[in-house]
Amino acid sequence: MDEKKQARWALILGASSGFGAATARTLAHEGYHICGVHLDRPSTMPDVEQVIADIRATGQEALYFNMNAANAEKRAIVLDELAQRTAEGGTVGVLMHSLAFGTLKPYITANPEEAISQQNMDMTLDVMAHSLVYWTQDLFRRGLLLQGSHIFAMTSAGGRRVYRSYGAVSAAKAALESHIRQLALELGPHGVTANCVEAGVTDTAALRKIPGSEVMVEKALAMNPGGRLTTPDDVARVIATLSRPDLTWLTGDIIRVDGGEGIAS
User: 91-118: per-residue pLDDT in tens?
Assistant: First the structure.
């Protein structure tokens, strides 16, 4: 079997920064070609271009799409292209869901215009949770998820904790964890695993958008046995380790990557 027939791809949703970018770089070093989906303005495109350059420097392919990952038509464009790239025997060994695009508004306010709307709520749940199901369905139907493939979805302690203005995102994380359990059940007979990765508090652009994130950082630093925050590279190394095709018996779980932060809180 030639090198092309052995091609392994990682499809990363949210691949331009934070956990997604770090995992793209790490998996490229592990021999994966990277298909990345991201949504960036021109001001942040230099960061995306650097990620792509780092991937290609490893000798792997970087196929990146700047688009709304929750759009069904755009999803079809990505997967059609990926199917062509894998037509001679390749597979998607890793699907990573790391989309952080939601509305941070309270539920109850005196002024209705300041409260979260149905549109806000639906968008947040669709992008940060339900989109995982639709990408997985389409990958499976195209024959791109095979024995030994792995799905990883980024969750957080926010799925079970309460933060001001975080209600919709918290609901999305809880739904994401539920989707992972269901996917683990239904994909188990096919040898495909599905797990959530719960990172500790990590200094990312997504975290800094949360009101009161400074307090979250201070508490994490005070509690973490390791004496520091979690980094995207910490998460990337764990995902790379768990992406071996023969590791098919760890599924349906929430894997904490936090240096012990969760047990100290």
Answer: 999 999 999 899 999 999 999 999 999 9
Cα Rg, the chain, nearest whole Å: 18
Pairing, β 8-13 against β 33-38: parallel
pLDDT at 5: 47
CA 207 centroid distance within chain:
14
Walk me through the domains of the chain, giving residue ranges and CATH numbers: 4-264 (3.40.50.720)
Angle, alpha carbons 114-118-119 (nearest 5°) = 90
Q: Are 89 and 100 in contact (CB under 8 A)?
A: no
Which of 177, 156, 201, 151 has its CA nearest to residue 12? 151
Cβ proximity of 37 and 60 under 8 Å = no
pTM to 2 decimal places: 0.93
For 32-75, how does the pLDDT look when each residue is reduced to its tens digit (9 = 90+)? 999 999 999 999 999 999 999 999 999 999 999 999 999 999 99
Residue of 92, 172, 102, 185 whose CA lies nearest to 140: 92
